[in-house]
Design goal:
This protein has a single domain, classed as Transposase IS200-like (Alpha-Beta Plaits, 2-Layer Sandwich). The chain is 35% helix and 22% strand. It has 3 helices and 6 strands, in the order E-E-E-H-E-E-H-E-H. Strands 4-5-3-6 form a 4-stranded antiparallel β-sheet, with helices on one face. A two-stranded antiparallel sheet has the order 1-2. Helix 1 packs across helix 2.
């Protein structure tokens, strides 16, 4: 996950630790739901050119370590992941529709992980054209 990535305008290494909970902290994520949840999260991340470093599911919350393009933004990525997982999981698993108006709470926790090393900054500066 220490990989430095780039798009047309930006060279970056943005890794975030994200945690979100089920509505009312209900313990509804079992093994089959967890497996399907992981597939959906990976699909969304591939579509958005984000890279999953680690994904852990618990009965009442999810923890995701992910690298994403700063132009996309972590807020948009998390919003898309939560939206897609809620829609698809509630369609595929009817047990998630009973006693839960939505699958996830509106809030989530996010923190940055690591930071740029001095060598990475020097490498970036050295690679820039001098015009």
């Amino acid at each position: 996950m220490d990989e430095i990535r780039s798009n047309n305008q930006i060279v970056y290494r943005c890794v975030f630790d994200v945690v979100w909970c089920t509505k009312y902290r209900r313990p509804v994520i079992d093994a089959s739901i967890s497996e399907r949840l992981a597939q959906i999260v990976h699909n969304v991340c591939v579509e958005r050119h984000a890279q999953v470093a680690q994904l852990e599911t618990y009965p009442d919350h999810v923890r995701l370590a992910v690298s994403c393009d700063p132009q996309l933004g972590i807020h948009r990525l998390v919003k898309q992941i939560k939206s897609r997982t809620s829609q698809e999981l509630r369609t595929e698993f009817s047990s998630l529709c009973s006693r839960l108006p939505t699958l996830w709470t509106n809030s989530y926790f996010v923190a940055t992980v690591g930071g740029a090393t001095t060598e990475a900054v020097k490498h970036y500066v050295a690679q820039q054209p001098k015009n």
